[in-house]
Amino acid sequence: MAEPKLEVTVLRATDLKNVEKKGKSDPYAVLELAGTEFKTKVIKNNLNPQWDETFKFTLPAPLSANSPALNITVKDKERTRDRLLGKCTVRLDVLMGDRTQTKFYSLSQGEGRIQLRLKYDGPVDSSAPAAPQAGTATCLMRRCRIRVEASIGNIGNVLENPDTEGSITAPAKPTFDGSCYYYISWENRKPCLELKSDWEDIDYRYKTLNFLRTLAASLEDICHQIAVFQSQRDIEEDALLDLTDDAILALETFQKLCQQPLPALPDGKFTRLDYHLFRLRNASIRTFNAMAGTMIKKIKELGAMKILDICGEDVPDLRGQVMDMCYEPQLSIPDVILWILTDDQRRAYLRVPVSDIMFDENPAHRGKQFGQVQTAFMKLPAANRSKANQTGDIPAQIQFRAWFGDAEYTALWPKSPATLAVLSEVYENQRYMLTKWADPGIGRYTDVTRKKKQPKDQVLLPTGWEWTSEWEIAPEIVEFDPEAAVDAVTEEVWENQRLIPFKGWRNPTSHPSFSALNPREKADKDSWELDEGWAWEGDWEVDTARPCDHEGWAYAVSFASKTFFPAKKRIHCVRRRRWTRTRRRIARVQNRDGDTGEADADADADEEDEADPLMEGDPEGWLYAFSFGSQFHKKRRRRDLVRSRRFHRERQPIPGFDFAEVAPLTPEEQEQTYSVGLFYRYPKLELYQVRAHIYQARKLIAEDASGLSDPYVYLICGHHSTRSTTVKQSTCPLFDQVGTHEIQHVMNYAHFPEPKDPALAAITRNTVIAISEGDRASVFNKKDEDAKSILQEAKKQDPDFTEDEIDWWTKFYASMQQSEAIKRYRGNVFTIYKWELERVFDLEDVVSSFSLVRGKTGQQRESGMFKGKIHVITDVDEVPPGSTFDREAQTDVTRVLVRVYIVRGEDFQPQDANGGCDSYIQIHLGNKRVVNDVSNYIPDALSPVFGKTFEVEAVIPLQTELRVSVWDQDTLDKDDLVGATTIDLEDRWLSKCRPRCGLPQTYTREGFNAWRDAHTPREILSELCEEHDLPEPLYSDDPNNVWVKTALPERGIETFTCQYLEPDNDMEIKLENAALSALHSMDWTPEHIETRRLYNDCQPGVEQGRLKMWIDMFPLDGPPIPPPIDISPRKPKEYELRVVVYNTYDVVLDEKSITGERMSDIYVSGLLRGMESKKAKTDTHYRSLNGEGNFNWRLKFKFLYYPAEEKLVFHKKRSLLSRDKEEIKVPPILALQVWDNDLFSADDFLAAIDLNLLEMPAPFKLPKKCKMYTQEYHDKHERINLFKAKRVAGVYPCTRGGGEKGEELTGKLEVEIELLTAEEAEQKDNGFGRKEPNQFPKLKKPNRPPTSFFWLTSPWKTFRYIIWKNYKWYFLLALLISGLITFLCLMFYNVPRFSVGAIFGSKA
Q1: pLDDT band at 1060 (very low <50, low <70, confident <90, very high)
Q2: Are 784 and 793 in contact (CB under 8 A)?
Q3: How far apart are CA 1062 and CA 767, in angstroms?
């Protein structure tokens, strides 16, 4: 047999790590394979060396899956000790298919890649395939012959029915993957197990069950989408429209399925239960169909905005009702069980329900797993289950496909891409006699039992079949090296002694003096033999680092004792101590000329002994044993007397042959075919590469008594596994390792759609949300050179513009598009994101975060977080450098300054009984609280304006989680958590979109738009070019045409110009803005404010409010850090409003006097809307008979005002029990009202006018011309901004709205209104009303008519002007009548007397 040889050509390396402080590394490569080592030449000062050197290796055995790996180490040549640049391991079994391959291999523990050309010449061990993936069983069972059995009921059970054929695979031994697992693989030739059995015809039951499951599955996706949307707030309208379309489509699909009839009951072959279930299910499906139709109708009527209200509960409830029907109590066909057998013992099993793999022509009645590739974890049988429950071990993982159905319809099953094949097998046997191998008495060629003869030339080829190969050696045992993953092993030997009376401690006679851990198993340390490739390191030493005395002895009563004590007691009769010695792998260093040098002094001593040819392994596939009934092994031992090897020959059906005309083989003929199983041969597999950057883990659960753990990571893909280094005593370990696996494509034999992008098949991540037009504020076209230019531009547009109206908050509101004051602002604006920044940008482009869980399914709990990056590379041969891990996460500790800007809160959940929230900010870095702003809490505000800046120092990657929480301050009780949000600082620090400090629209030096980053745009652009080995940017020197020409990553050379040029611009500023234009083209994070949602663990998934905020990050060891931007809340400005009420005209007369006259007791009141408690009023003009009132009265109002927001502010308690006053902002509106004064009842409202101080209507000059305002009047006269005009005077129409007549003019008010600042009011002091100091202006007492008085305090005027004026003629007539009556009375009184006197002549 030809000697196996490997030719390795080291072509080149790219992007190597630079470990030199000056210059570049001096790389060379070291190749090691099976103890043989080569070195390339050293290439000076080069990170992309070209070697093109070829080396030849001789393999110890034919190429197989267990062949030793080729280890490549790239080092930097130094005078003293060479430094490591990277390592990689190349599996040679990939050459079993394509003998010549040229590939790039990534270097772990460093950076870059190396390109190798591999060429193999020699035999191949075909029983140990190259790099299998599909049809593998991965298990933890070592050194066992494993078979896989399929059974259904008792059919296929080979332990009870040994004559059963086709239900079990041929024995195979697991292969060690070099790390932690053992696997069995059949490469692209997969065994097929076939079971034929007879069962009751109950297909209609399985079809009905699968149909109901299909109904439920049609609503599964839409239910999941609804659940996701219900946990969110502020859902975009486009997303709701998409959800509506998906819901309608899902419900229509559900309706179409409901319209299909249920499988019919067979005539006379069903039970009464079948009949009643059939009727119930038909009625239910009709109901489900109607429910789905109703929901579709509602969705189309109400639209997308009501989709969650319609489907939020109804669709999941509909699916739940269907799931309740997915039960069939009369299934009599048992489940299919897959067993793993070792040495005729059942080790693990998997139960596969028949309904899942049942075939039917109607896809709706077919099992969901029919013909699908399944990967499942197997379970332990009941006898071993308790142990598994304690350790949590999974005995095996299996990948398989399964079909089940009526034998008559197998022709309708989907065709497999594989080709059917059958293997014939014979064993060649020999016995060692004296000096040579000879044929044994049992015969040279036998079956696997070595008892039945099977000559190769007597094999029977059945009719319709043809041979596709000759007899080939197929080794039965694939040896594995349990120490393949280690380079050093510590061996131990125990020394035993017994206490003999009067003689002391002596070697025991019942036990060996030196033994293994088991005291009866002899192990002599002086005669220990090492395998080839190993050498001792040091001598045997006593282990004293354990419970023992100073000499290493531990004592016990007997050697059978389970516990040995470090101190001797009287009862102790035996003692033992542990000796240890370390052995390491060695390599023969071979130079370019082929000479061999010695690598170790101990290796020299071992090589002096002549090797025994009987102890060498046989390259021809022979297996050795003491006898044919013993266990065979691959390497011959001294006592082995027999050997055996296996031969396989493959046959396939002749294409187009009709087997229906051929009689089946008899049992004797079947035995003569030497068949060992049915196989499916699949097409050639595609090669993929899995690259995993194992970076960091966080918040791991402590497993040691110290409160820490010693964590490490297993990377497992298919049957390959890799283990990372162990980080001692840490719950947040930093690994920073890159693991690489090459796997074969499994989709070729899977009957399900292949992913569109195989590079994303290994990991499922949340899709990065694209920013729609509504997600950010519009960008102004006008750019500003600095803050002064903003003011100048604003003053050009408005000469009365003041600097108080523009500040950082103006920029914020301009970005939000919320204030009228922003109309004059033309500066930089923020990009306002409605979501967290990580939902807008992929901040996990360097490393991603994965949650770690532990526990059973349904009972899983989070146990930490893993950070890393995983890629599946499709084109393994040609992967350009940097295509996957463009930027490795750094391992150095970096101290950074984190600035947290908290702008404002929105829609906090009330925490107090009064419906308010006294909110303040806390910040935690990891588990440490670094900010507690409780002293500055904002009372009774559900949308508070914080305007806070906090600075925190963090160490990355040790402190990476920043937790911002909002708390409610309570006086008597414990503070309540409103909600919190967590920010991953490490993701932002490492991300390629540079979110650590957003890029503004322009570069400025002053004001609130000043450049915030520690590096200028030109410095950032230069660093970017240097990082990607690009030429330095080239800048123009023409101040009228400023540009920069630069090459950007993954793009060619481009020219970027400064878009705005002004004569007074500084040239440096223009150049910086040109560089900033180039940076903007990189799609980096702009200057932004993100909206972070707050959550509370007491209400999981329910949003508790939002924070508008952003963070900046700066390295503390970098350039000077600019000062923070001042975003403190605006402070209101104090104003005084003076209103002088002169007269009223034509006020409606609402009352009648006792004399019947129309009149009103008029007074005027004034107030600022929102500040009703500070209402002021004039004196009363009594008895206005013509609607005219004279006052000359001054009203004064002091208030606080935000000029930038154009809002009046006041403070007010929310309720009587409130502790603090709440700040309220309202428009500055002056209300002037005319009232009628009543003494014994409520005053009557006569007229009013509301004047917005920002846009007051122009008053009328004369009362006669005053009338109700119309749109025509407003078009002719500009509105007045009192904050700019300062003073206005004239006549305002006052109206009163009422009933059917609508608003009507009910009076006219002559006033003078003046607005002063607090400083101006202090300089121009005056009194209220007409009090002293009566100035600015001086008000005289009004000249009211004499009829204006209060009747109760002026009785004479009341008589004169009311009674006498209106009733004087009545008084005169009454007086005349009274005089006449008096005269008549006196006359009649005196007439008798005078009559008598006249008669009698007497005198009166």
Answers
A1: low
A2: yes
A3: 44
Name the nearest CA neighbour of 1008 among 710, 742, 803, 1299.
803
**Which is it for strands 175-176 and 182-184: parallel, antiparallel or unpaired?**
antiparallel
HSE, CB side, 13 Å, CA atoms: give it for residue 1094: 22
Residues 6+ apart with CB under 8 A from 1383: none
Closest to 894 (Cα-Cα) out of 693, 1116, 616, 702: 1116
* Mean pLDDT calculated for residue range 826-846: 87
> Cα 519–522–525 angle (5° rounding)?
110
> Is residue 1183 a contact partner of residue 1348, using CB atoms and an 8 Å limit?
yes
Task: Give the tens place of pLDDT for each residue, 71-104.
Answer: 889 998 888 888 888 888 887 877 766 678 887 8
Chain centroid to CA 846: 14
| Token couple for 545 | 């680092």
Say whether pTM exceeds 0.70: no
The whole-angstrom separation of Cα 1382 and Cα 766 is 115
Give phi and psi for 1115, each to the nearest 5. Answer: -75, 135
Tell me the H-state helices in 1095-1237.
none
List of residues 6+ apart from 1363 with CB closer than 8 A? none
Within 8 A by CB and 6+ apart from 355, the residues are: 206, 209, 210, 328, 331, 367
- Which alpha helices (H) appear in 1028-1122, and where do they start and end? 1067-1080
Q: Which residues, at least 6 apart from 1098, have a Cβ–Cβ distance to it below 8 Å?
A: 977
How far is residue 1079's CA from residue 894's CA, in Å, rounded to a whole number?
Answer: 25
Structure tokens at 1373: 């007539």
Which residues have C-beta within 8 Å of that of residue 7, sequence separation ≥ 6? 54, 55, 56, 57, 118, 119, 120, 121
Give first-to-last CA distance, the chain, whole Å: 189
H or E segment to which residue 426 belongs? strand 419-433
Residue positions counted in the chain: 1404
CB atoms within 10 A of CB 971: 7
HEC string for 59-126? CCCCECCCCCCEEEEEEECCCCCCEEEEEEEECHHHHHCCCEEEEEEECECCCCEEEEEEEEECCECC
C-alpha angle with apex 569: 566 to 573, nearest 5 degrees?
A: 90
3-class DSSP state of 1044: strand
Q: What sign results for the dihedral spanned by CA atoms 1266, 1269, 1272, 1275? A: positive
Closest by CA position to 739, among listed 714, 758, 757: 714
Both structure tokens of 97:
């298919």
C-alpha span between 152 and 619 (Å, rounded): 42
Query: SS3 sequence, 322-350?
Result: HHHHCCCCCCCCCCEEEEEEECCEEEEEE
pLDDT: which is higher, 875 or 8: 8
Separation of alpha carbons 910 and 920, rounded Å: 14
What's the DSSP call for residue 1359?
I
Q: Give CA 526 to chain center in angstroms.
A: 59
Q: Give the E-state strand segments of 800-941 in sequence order.
A: 831-832, 848-854, 861-873, 894-906, 919-925, 928-932
Residue 1298 is predicted with a pLDDT of 66
Whether 982 contacts 937, CB under 8 Å: no
- DSSP category for residue 1361: I
User: Can you count the helices (H) and strands (E) in the chain?
Assistant: 19, 62
Parallel, antiparallel, or unpaired: how do β-strands 861-873 and 848-854 relate? antiparallel
User: Distances in Å between the alpha carbon of 466 and those of 304, 675, 1242, 1377?
Assistant: 65, 14, 116, 156
As a whole number of angstroms, the longest Cα–Cα distance in the chain is 210
Mean pLDDT, rounded, of the chain:
81
Q: Which amino acid is at 1077?
A: S
Would you say 751 and 371 are in contact if contact means Cβ atoms under 8 Å apart?
A: yes
